[in-house]
Amino acid sequence: MRNEFLMEKKTKPPVVAEWLLNKVLPGDSWNTSAGDFEEYFSTLVREKNYHTASIWYWKNILFLAPKKINHSILWSIAMFSNYLKIAFRNILKHKGYSFINIAGLAIGMTCSILIFLWIMDEINYDKFHKKDDVLFSVPAWQHYGGTALPWSGTPPALGPAMEAEIPEIVNYARMESGRGNSLTVGYGNKVFREQVLRADISLLELFSFPLKYGSIEAGLSDPYSVYLTERIAEKYFANEDAVGKVLIIENLYNFTVAGILENIPENSTIRFDILVPLEFTEKLYDQVDYTTTWSNLYCRTYVESIPGASIDAINSKIKDRINEGNGGSEKVIPFLRKYSDIYLHGNTGDGRNIINVRIFAVIAVSVLILACINFVNLSTAQSFKRAREVGLRKVVGAGRKDLIFQFLGEAVSISLIALAIAFALTFLLIPVFNGISGKNISPDEIWSSSTILTMFSIVFTAGILAGSFPAFYLASFRPIKVFKQGAGSGGRSVNYRNILVVLQFAISIGLIISTFIIRNQLNYVDSMDLGLNKEQIIYIPINDTIRNQYDAVKQELLKNPGIEDITFANTLINSIGWNWHNWDWEGRDESEDPLVTNLFSDEDLLKTFNIELKYGKFLENEEEHDQFWSNNVVINETFADIINIDDPIGKQISNGERSYNIIGVVKDFNFKSAFIQIEPLIIAYNPRFFNIIFLKAGPQEMEDVLTDIESVIKTFDPGSPFEYEFLDESYTRLYSSQQRFGTIFRYFAILAIIISCLGLFGLALFVTEQRIKEIGIRKTLGAPVTGIMLLLSGEFIKWILLANLLAWPVAWYYMSGWLSNFAYRFNPGISIFLTACILSILIAFVTVVYQVTRAVIANPIDSLKYE
Amino acid sequence: MNILTRTEELILLSIWRLQDNAYCIPIHELIEKLTGEKILLGSIYMPLDRLVKRGMLNSFLSESTPERGGRHKRIYSLTNKGKESLNRINELNSQVWEGIPKFSLDEK
User: Fold this and answer.
1) Which of B46, B49, B68 sits opposite A35 (nearest CB)?
2) How far is CA A213 from CA A204, A230, A244, A247, in A?
3) ipTM of the complex
């Protein structure tokens, strides 16, 4: 039995060969001919051997194949050139349609290419490091006041401990967290203020910032070595060989150039031009334990793990280690986070960038769909003109398949033309796009293989998407009907085209409404009453030196008549983020445990910001009381409402064992942003937390005031460089991502409108052409020009109104979702919707008016002479 | 002019000779034997199909054998039209060859 089976197996030709033979064998009775071949094959196997039989089989295929291939290629080339010829003739014959078709597609594609480049740039952010797979950042959960916040900073001692004690960690690098102050850097007579990054030199081992000259070893061994990027080396050393030269930092410290790095790529989170070892900070700020402490979160820590290490295992080891380091407080719990994920997804997966990527992708796809709708619309509108061609092709033997191939091919070749234009447009528009999106994409990116690949797949998808309806629609024409009744253009297809145009306009109107709402909301936020004055206020970050003598600094600064008021506080007034639970007061409901934000300031807070005092009085001549709050505190209205006592002045509130007197209530002012409702606030005096000076300047020249401030600060703290910012600018920054969102929406709304108008224009062209005889008859019977105008444009206006009805609820739904991000928002009235409606009708009217007028003023003789 | 080509003539004659066994393998075998030349098995399908289309051959499916992988044989037989064509070509041949002796080759 088994032998027989083997025999049978052995006499069968190879399956692959059999399949191939089927492809190349002429004639159409495959089943019997395969039988013949198999019979012959088995005879050969019997008489000679399997090997010879196989050779014979393959030889047959080999000799038959060229004939077959020649045959089919010859015919397809002939047909293809015919398709191509007809396609180009059609493009040239209907220049208007072709222009609209190609322009619409090209705009849509340009838009998608730009967005694609943007998305690629976002996705590849921080991904260029060779060790990307094993590079981790170590952020930490901070548990304070009952809430946990992810924080980028970790104790400086963590990195070395991890490398030494956790076997999965191979290397680490620490980087000073936050923005470093600028320092003076000098070489000879070239002295400039520069941002100097202080970090472990092992940073260069972990991350791929390639060295051009010099070595990493030099920097690891010498604490007074400095690394420069090419850009900065050029600035200081021009054409000299920089390695080995000495730079003087802060006029005091001599640093030897240990290496020159290539410029940091644009898509890197870690950016620097000058890098010095982290230990330098100890000397700079005279902090001996800066790099060894467990009790502060000065550094960002980056680590390299062994490949395939378990993150959870490492995390639990870190947790144990840090508890040992800081005495088991459990307040800071570091964890590993893949370094290249942070840019898009944030420390905990709540990143905003990934949301932007998604929004952009959706917009790109919608614009492309709009463009494809145009294409489908125009091609079907035109299809009746080609009904005879299709009929004739069918009569001479074209099958459905050939016709579908022809029309799909035509669509794809039109998309290819559009693609060429789109590439050119993209090239021109990249600088503009960079401006809008805040990116720095180089035009060369267009030629990267991924872009080209994606573009071609878009072309074919768009071509097939746009071409498939006309292809199947045209291919289904019945020749006999076409020739008998002339061009068939049933009412069904007209309706279908109207629906597409309505859809296009609905999308455009939706975008217009969204743009309006975003702009109005941003204006509202900008002009909303914050409960405090943010104009003419300068703020200066300070350090210990100033903090320790803040009163003297204040008196000195006030000598300048240009400065009206000064107040010291612990944080920026629009982003106070420090808060506590566990407050208690008389008559508190057990369930109430509000999270109360803390502001520490001196007695001039209200004066400086024009904040209104509601009851009682503000802090005056307070003494330091305990490690947090002063004896007397002031609360805001919201907190007073929660406490809910008739007269809160003089009452006590307590936190833990200490209690504090409420001496005043201030009117609510917004101390975060419009995104969040005003929360309960407690204002207390504690100079140990002072971090910022707020100065309210008078209406004088700002320049002079600033110079004066700088000189005062310098006399008290000559070591630190002077930095300042304006408060209103920091408010604008709060909403910068929303601003960008608005700008992007505006541009895409414009694009969508352009594409939709192209579509409407094409449709107007088609409809008026179809009704030209009707118009002629109407005119000869005495209809007035205005009447016909109204009749024709009324139809288009009707569609636009319908589009409005469709767009309104959808736009309302989505935009109220967006608005709900804001605790303080304007109320979008019906006027926005009406404006969008009127605008869309105007745009539509302008689009169709040329076609309509041309049709109406045409001499009826021309249109009716053949009847 | 509706004259058979030499290949067609050969195929038709082989089919007539083979009678009930006239399917591709023996046809191919016979032609190779008669001409003494190697011919690709695949290359006789085209003329066979053409002859069927021109109505000179009938074909029907016969029994299948295991060595054919269970596939049927296609047996061909001459139609009257086929026979007429053969007669015609035979006449034509004898007419044009009449009185012509066997060619002798020139010696060099």
Assistant:
1) B68
2) 13, 10, 10, 17
3) 0.79
